[in-house]
Design brief:
single chain, alpha/beta, Rossmann fold, 262 residues, nine-stranded mixed beta sheet, EC 2.1.1.244, 7 helices, transferase, Alpha N-terminal protein methyltransferase 1
């Protein structure tokens, strides 16, 4: 596995986000209008997860690459007793409690650190990753997922909501030094972290031309966000990768740890 074939730069990504305003439109790259659609799709997915056999608990969630806390505010605090937040941009971290408003009482801890350096200190029922894993090299992503795997409570899950390409190739965005992987590449990475898909869906109702997305459990991989500032027809797909939705084809996958010996 090539750790950094595309020359991902954590410093360049931080520099890019340091110039972005702490607003919904800012963190969604000018696509703030899709926030409600995104949350609704994630809500359906999460609720199906929480009502499933051997469902995760509802005590503690972790929101990774949280930005200003959009997912914490509109999704996680409504389903979990408490939420921890990880976000590398200090400006966003300082905006989270005010943005979340009354629900901030459920925010337990804020971690101002990049995911490549983050080491979970607790056991989580849900670890939610959305539109953030494209900033990690393959090597760092595998290591990060292993740390997340080891930080799961009994029946806990990891949710990954990410864009995927339909070309089967990785595509680089030089603006923010991020990449968009294919589903096949994600599956290879999950396998390297001893994670196995147990649910997969597609987000629906996003505007045409937005990159596809994926989701999962125990590790749960979820659909991703549109590439910032881009509508890219060649990247769209209508494949069903599991069980969530999105007109443009945003796959959502659920994963679990692989049994010893598999």
């Amino acid at each position: 596995m090539n750790a950094n074939k595309f020359n991902i730069s954590y410093a360049k990504a931080l520099e890019y986000w340091s110039e972005i305003p702490p607003t919904v439109d800012g963190v969604l790259g000018g696509f703030g209008f899709i926030s409600e659609l995104d949350i609704n799709g994630s809500k359906l997915f999460l609720e199906s997860l929480l009502s499933s056999e051997n469902a995760p608990g509802c005590s503690l969630a972790l929101d990774c690459g949280a930005g200003i806390g959009r997912i914490t505010k509109d999704l996680l605090i409504h389903h979990f007793e408490a939420v921890d937040v990880v976000e590398p941009d200090l400006k966003f971290i300082n905006s989270i409690r005010e943005f979340v408003g009354d629900g901030q009482l459920k925010i337990r801890r804020l971690y101002n650190v990049g995911l490549q350096e983050f080491i979970p200190e607790n056991k989580y029922d849900i670890i939610w990753n959305q539109w953030v894993l494209g900033y990690l090299t393959d090597e760092d992503l595998v290591s990060y997922l292993i740390r997340c795997r080891d930080a799961l409570a009994p029946s806990g899950v990891i949710v990954v909501k990410e864009n995927v390409t339909s070309t089967g190739k990785t595509e680089k965005d030089e603006t923010d030094s991020s990449i968009t992987r294919s589903l096949k590449q994600f599956i290879k990475i999950f396998k390297s972290a001893s994670l196995k898909r147990i649910k997969q869906c597609k987000q629906t109702n996003f505007p045409n031309g937005i990159y596809p997305i994926i989701k999962c459990r125990r590790i749960t991989v979820c659909p991703g966000i549109p590439r910032f500032g881009q509508y890219n027809d060649r990247a769209t797909t209508h494949k069903t990768l599991g069980t969530v939705r999105l007109n443009v084809g945003v796959p959502i996958v659920v994963m679990e740890t692989t049994d010893q010996g598999d």
